[in-house]
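Give me the fold.
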Amino acid sequence: MPLDPQAQALLDQFQALGAQALSSMSVADARRAMETLASMRTAPPPIRSAVDRRIPGPAGDIPVRVYTPDGTAPLPLLVYFHGGGWVLGGIETHDATCRELANGAECVVVSVDYRLAPEHKFPAAAEDCFAATRWVAAHAAELGADAQRLAVGGDSAGGNLAAVVAQMARDRGGPRLVFQLLIYPATMAAFDTASYRDNAEGYLLTTADMRWFWDHYLARSNDAANPYASPLMGTLTGVPPALVVTAEFDPLRDEGEQYARRLQEAGVATRLSRYDGMIHGFFGMTQMIDKAKQAVQEASAQLRQAFRR
C-alpha cells in the first residue's frame, strides 16, 4: 500500500525544515534533533499526576517519571522504555506517549531514563531497565499499584529493551510479568532483511541510522550475538504474552515481525499488528497521524486485557 498521506505530509514537513539523517550528525546534534521533533507536539494530554523521582540502579540512581491516571488503587503497572537507538531520547521526548498509555490502559506508567550510549555502552541500558523493573515490582504498593499486574513496554530501542527485560526476568527468577508491549522493536543487530533494503532511505529512520545506533551501542562486535542485545537470538519460551506493532515503511519491520513469529512458535500468546502506510516513529505522533491514535488505542486495549487475566 502507498505511504499514508498524513505520514507523507509529516516527511514533507521535516524536509522543508532541512532535517538531516541522524547518522550524518554528531551525537549531541542528533539528541537536539530528537528533542525538536518531540517538541512539535502541542500540549501533552492531562493526567492526574506525573512525578519525577530517582531509584537505585546498578551504576547509581536512575531517573524515572511515575504517571498515575484517574482510578482506584491499586492500579496495574507498565514500565516503559523510550526509543532513540539507545543513544537519543529520554523521559521528556516520550512524555506524551506515557500519558496516553497511562490514561488509555488505566495503569500506572513508570518511564525509565536509562543510561545512553556511546557514553554507556551495552549492557548498561538493559541492566538499568531490568533494575528499574525489579524496583517497581518491589515498590508497587507505594506507587499505588499492583505488582501482580506488571507489564513492560517500549518503542524501537525501547521495544528492544522491553523484550530483553522479559528474557532477563525469566532467566533471573523474576519479577513476574504479565505482558510485553513491543512497538517496532529492534530485535537483531543485522541489516539483511527486505525491509532494510526496501526502506533504506526516505522514511525518517534509515538503514544508515540503524548502523550508526548499533555502532554506538555495542561495546564489541560479538555483543551482537548476545540475546540481551539482540533478543531474536534468545530462547523465547517462558516469556510473557506480547503485542508487536510494526510499520510498513520501516527498516525494522521484518525483524519485529520475525520476533512475533518466533514468540508464537515458542508457545507465547502474541498479537502481531502491522500498520500499513506507516513509518518508524508513528506511534508517538497521535496529534498528526490518525493511525497513531489507532495504535495507541490498540496497545491500551491489549494492556487492559492482559491486566484482567
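The chain has a mean pLDDT of 96.
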